[in-house]
Amino acid sequence: MSCFEIYYDGGAKKMRPINNFKEYAAIRNSTKNRRNTKLAREGNDEAKRKMVQFCYSCLPNDDGTLKGSKRMSNSVGMDIDFTKDMPKKEFEAAFEIMKDNILDKAQQLRLLMLERSATKGLHLVFERHPELTQEEDLEWAQKLLGVEFDKGAKDITRVFFTPTADPKDLFFCKDELFVNEECEVKEAEDEAKAEVKAVVPKTSAQGAGESPALLTGDKLDPLSAGEGTGERLYNGLPYSSIVTEFLRQFNNGQTPVEGNRNVMTFELAKALRSICDYNLDFMKEVIPRYDNFPEDEYVRTLQSAIDEPRRGVSYKLQKVLEVLYRKDKKTDGKVDFETENELPPAMPSRLPYPLGFLSSKVPEMYRPAVCEAVFAPLSTYVHSVKFRYWDGVEHEPTFMSVLTAPMSIGKGCVRKPISIILDELVKKDESNRAREAEWKQKNPASKQKRDPRPTDICVQVLIDNLTDAVFNQRVYDADKNGQRFLYTSVDELDTLKKITSRGTANEVSVIIRKAFDNSKHGQERVGADSVTGIAPLRFNFNASTTNRNFQQFFAREMTTGTVTRLSLATIIKPIGAKRPVFKEYDANYCAEVKKLTQKLSMLSGEISCPKCNKFAEQLCDENEQLASLYGSDPYLVLSYRATVIAWLKGMMLYVMNGEKWTKDIQDYMEWSLRYDLWVKMHVIGKMLDAAFDDEENATSKRGPMNMLTLLKDEFTMEDLILVRRKLGKSVDIKSVKAQLSLWRSRKFIDFDDYKTVIKKIKKNK
User: Fold this and answer.
1) What pLDDT is recorded for position 428?
2) Which of 90-94, 245-249, 355-359, 459-463 has the lowest average pLDDT?
3) What sign results for the dihedral spanned by CA atoms 729, 733, 734, 740?
4) Which helix (H) or strand (E) holds 267?
5) What is residue 286's three-state secondary structure?
6) Is the CB of residue 359 less than 8 Å from the CB of residue 571?
7) Are the beta carbons of 24 and 621 closer than 8 angstroms?
8) Rg of the chain on CA atoms, in Å
9) Strand order in the sheet with 486-490
10) Which one of 205, 236, 249, 534 has the fewest beta carbons within 10 angstroms of its own beta carbon?
């Protein structure tokens, strides 16, 4: 017998064994599969394709793939379909008759599982006759039941789209289904011997819970691995399962052997120590001593891992637990974000160039803040450069970085590296400001024939106190002098209000949204002395604040897309940490920074990195899975632009490393995404939940809804994604873009690009 869940790895279908009913039911009852089952029953073919899939008739190839498998299992999966155009009442009657017929013959059929299919039909699994081929087994069952099997489902690699584990969908299931063993093919025997060989299931007197019966409630739900066996559990998960999953993810599923047993034992111990109370005896109990690992060396390895600086739950362990929780029924596919992510993910130990040396002068607790902060000033040197995201949309390296952390914790740690990075630009700006001042002096307002203002004046590093006219002039100058970025750095977030005359948080939010999308910005005036100019807004900044001030500043911007465009960082002070000691920023440091900024200044044109794009697309898929796991709309909505920001960081690292893609860049890109989302969820997660609930309550109605009426006169693609998600529709980017294209073709909306603001077209009455 066998039961394998189908999953995709790099586009290839792979198989993962399911070992007990509890795991099987949890997968079937996940929130996502419940939703897709409901939609499939309503005729949504896309939802059907997204239902979980299982295979029952074969075992995987050696590399875990399904395609081309030749190894038959001890069970056979069978598909029975009814006529698609059969009237509803007639179908329901025929369905019940067939279901009862199969259950009545469960013992003779040696039935293992019976379920309703995604639409009109039945799936059943029965024990294989070893002497028969797959098709002969299906023909045998067909003759016994008096019904034809689906001729398109006779291959052993056939997979079944699977509904929920509710009694209305899953009618029968035996524990033997989860014995994943290969069939031993036997020579054909005569019919009489075959009948003698039929296995008679045990009665309750022979073995509790093993007689065929309808599945009701938890009647046939076996104990999960570890329960009743004395094995240690972590939050319901056996430690053995955690170890196995860790090795699957980080050692290609291989058991450590001499040659890598030391390092793998150390990595495993470092990951598990936080859920083993940092206790050596505990860890010896749950971490195996692989391949004759000498006892004393094994113990020293565990102790070394315990002695490493403590950083909470490691990122590797989080990834392992996320996978296991999705398979565990108790959580129903849901995990509380804050409970499982008490501390931010640990930064990779190996940092890609130039982050290692840029953060080398600060204590370890400040390194994440510095690494995340330097992207904004570094990218200000980049001009006339485009990066194309995996969805085809062009982006420029825009970084608006906010460091939000408690008072007096050392947020000023980012000032010095930022100042050194900007040194060349500041010197250039001094010259341009002097030329501008000279022009003003020679051309006062009272002068009748004024000299034209020099067109090559371009000031990039702005002070934090500007008028609208000055800011708009700087935007226009920067664009006309090589599509350059503006930049400012403020010690307090509130100071950003002073970059325009209006001095409001709302105006800052508008600028943030325009800057991220490089939308047009400026003004048109009639007066000869007035600043007139419109150009794409390219604006990077660094700002610092406390969590409370951040919440107050953006309190009215939870659903406008402003906070999703920011890159957030924080500072976590370890318990018992000593007073920080900073190293000197010496001449070698400054010289290396100068070489780097000169290199960035020389870049031009469109730069692509297929590996970075492919990884970003993979992260998008993971984000959807995690959002489903956490049951969090805010996490999903935040993740779209957070992935773009992480991708831009990956692209910047790619060009700074001579256009070479490395594992270190990939690791940092992934960490930066998870870190950014962690900070956002911890600082404004609850505010987003409340804001999204308000939006849902304001638009919730019965019956079919016109999605366009649920959107404001001006909205973004993310707003549409949120509406579609609440209505149970696909949030796949292609589906969302198709919706927008359809609306535009029908002249309901208009927009220049998918990433810009979308406007409804008002019809003349």
Assistant:
1) 94
2) 90-94
3) positive
4) helix 261-272
5) helix
6) no
7) no
8) 31
9) 486-490, 539-545, 400-404, 567-569
10) 205
**Beta-carbon neighbour count of residue 363 at 10 Å?**
16
Cis preceding linkage at 354, omega within 30: yes
Structure tokens at 310: 């403590």
Does residue 394 sit in helix, strand or coil? strand
- Return the ∠ at Cα 396 (arms to 390 and 402), rounded to 5°: 105
Considering Cα of 676, then 681, then 687, then 691, what sign does the dihedral take?
positive
Which of 385, 433, 236, 411 has the alpha carbon at shortest distance from 325?
236
5-26 in b/e form (b: 16+ CB < 10 A) is bbeeeeeebbbbebbbbbbbbb
> CA-to-CA distance for 366 and 569, rounded, in angstroms?
10
What the block records as the tokens of 447 is 């002068």
Q: Which has the closest alpha carbon to 225: 249, 243, 202, 206? A: 243
Q: Classify 701 as helix, strand or coil.
A: coil
Taking the CA atoms of residue 736, residue 740, residue 745 and residue 746 in that order, the dihedral angle to the nearest 10 degrees is: 110
Question: What DSSP string describes 120-184?
Answer: SEEEEEEE--TTS-HHHHHHHHHHHHTS---GGG-STT--EEE--SSTTTEEEE-GGGG---B--
Alpha-carbon gap, residue 12 to 123, rounded angstroms: 24
Farthest CA pair distance, the chain: 116
Q: Which amino acid is at 554?
A: F
Pairing of strands 111-116, 121-127: antiparallel
The HSE-up count of residue 344 (CA atoms within 13 Å, CB side) is 27
Number of residues that make up the chain: 765
* Distance between CA atoms of residues 165 and 399, nearest Å: 46
Half-sphere exposure of 306 (CA within 13 A, CB side): 16
What is the rounded average pLDDT of the residues 430-440? 92
Give the whole-angstrom CA distance, residue 645 versus residue 623. 14
SS (H, E, C) 725-761: HHCCCCCCHHHHHHHHHHHHHCCCEECCCCCCCEEEC
Q: Look at 349-358, 377-386, 519-528, 644-653 and tell me which has the smallest mean pLDDT.
A: 519-528
Measured CA to CA, the distance from residue 306 to residue 271 in angstroms comes to 10
Q: What percent of the chain has pLDDT over 90?
A: 39
| Residue 226: pLDDT band with limits 50, 70, 90 | very low
Contact indicator for 160, 75 with CB cutoff of 8 Å: no
Q: Are 511 and 537 a contacting pair, CB within 8 Å?
A: yes
Tell me the C-alpha distance between 446 and 280, whole Å: 83
Do 283 and 302 meet the contact criterion of CB atoms below 8 Å apart?
yes
pLDDT at residue 444 in the model: 85
Residue in the block written with tokens 């971490």 = 287
The type of residue at 703 is: G
Query: Pseudo-torsion of CA 261, 262, 265, 268, nearest 10°?
Result: -110
Q: Is the separation of the CB atoms in 509 and 716 below 8 Å?
A: no
Interval 50-73 mean pLDDT: 89
Separation in Å, CA 436 to CA 56, 456, 457:
77, 10, 7
Please give the Cα distance from 372 to 380 (Å, whole number): 15
Two tokens, residue 325: 């929780």
DSSP secondary structure string, 622-681? HHHHHHHHHT-HHHHHHHHHHHHHHHHHHHHHHHHTTS---HHHHHHHHHHHHHHHHHHH
Tell me how far apart the alpha carbons of residues 405 and 261 are, in angstroms, rounded to a whole number: 40
C-alpha 576: how far from chain center: 34
Give the residue carrying structure tokens 């409001």: 504
Alpha helix segments (H runs only) across 308-449: 315-326, 337-340, 355-358, 367-373, 375-379, 415-442
- Provide the pLDDT for residue 367: 95
Beta bridge partners of 567: 401
Higher pLDDT, 70 or 624: 70
**Cβ neighbourhood burial of 703 (10 Å; 0-12, 13-18, 19+):** exposed
Please report, for the chain, how many H helices and E strands are present, in that order: 26, 22
- The rounded distance, in Å, linking the Cα atoms of 538 and 383 is 10
